Amino acid sequence: MKKKLLLESGEVFWGEGFGALDATDGEVVFNTSMTGYQELLSDPSYCGQIVTMTYPLIGNYGINRDDFESIQPSIKGLIVRELCDYPSNFRSQMDLDALLSKKGIAGIQGVDTRALTRLIRSKGVVRGMILDADASKEQALENMRLNPSPTNQVEQVSTKTPYAAPGRGLKVVLVDFGSKLGIIRELSRRDCDITVVSHDITAEELLLLSPDGVMLSNGPGDPQDVKGAQELIQGLLGKVPIFGICLGHQLIGLACGARTFKLKFGHRGGNHPVLDLKRNTVSITSQNHGYAVDSESLEGTGLEQTHIALNDRTNEGLRHTKYPCFSVQYHPEASPGPEDANYLFDEFITLMQQHPVKSN
Questions:
Q1: How many CA atoms lie less than 13 Å away from 256 in the CB half-sphere?
Q2: Can you name the CATH fold of 154-354?
Q3: How far apart are CA 72 and CA 291, in angstroms?
Q4: Predicted TM-score of the model (pTM)
Q5: pLDDT (tens digit, 9 = 90+) per residue, 193-221?
Q6: Is 82 a catalytic residue?
Q7: How many whole angstroms from its chain centre is CA 196?
Q8: How many CB atoms lie within 10 A of CB 277?
Q9: What does the pLDDT read at residue 358?
Q10: Which fold has domain 2-148?
């Protein structure tokens, strides 16, 4: 079926539909990963977004049962240059088209993804719609104008009820702002006793669980829209060791008085170099974020910068100078992407061991 991608700035890209055939709209972003489309599709941080894959052939190794990062994907749509109709891999259980159809996710192939990516890099991220080729352009643009993008993405993807991933080691409470399963896997490999809680838990409620440490997860949207998160972190600082990833990193910055801002087109891919200022080493990292902490706003916050992105010099890591608390903007659990930064989970274990929580 002929489809088109309509951007709110008026540009149109033509292609063929796959997956779910209903119209969909969202913020159009691009990801530079060459592989890992299954993990990307199921990453809750993509809630409300339509993702453009810059690698030209997508779907060539199919879909398997093991590589999902959430049970129910929250992505709004997928844009590819060429969809592979006949995947070949010993783990493949279905093709990408079948998965998107089952999950109600719209896709469009045959798009000039190079031109689209260059446009986003030039103009910045923009809302768009995947719709039938003969649908009214004027009506679609009017619908986007009258229906602004949602601001409750974290509420949409966070768990509604607590659940446990038991272990025999240190007790970690994972605050779910849209957590990937990769974070739970890495903590479980270190035998942590994990309790996953909703984003709207209070500091008092969380501390009643008697954790050895708190993990603040990744998640979608603007960190300034996450109600109650800053108060939660302020109530935990100095009382329990904290490790924040991606959105969790940004929320730590806000809670301590720093500012965040929206990047022009974000960092999304598995090949982003990050400099560790303490070690003077570079890691190739997996990233997926559209906002960043303003490095110029750190003075007087008690936070110091620990990592920077070598592509644009934006902030990629923070450490509190007084309390046991650190965070990174990138994804040490990868999924997909390199595992150069996996050691950060070991540093979190060490931090909890060095700062045991005092019982009341």
A1: 30
A2: Rossmann fold (3.40.50)
A3: 24
A4: 0.97
A5: 999 999 999 999 999 999 999 999 999 99
A6: no
A7: 17
A8: 15
A9: 80
A10: Glucose Oxidase; domain 1 (3.50.30)
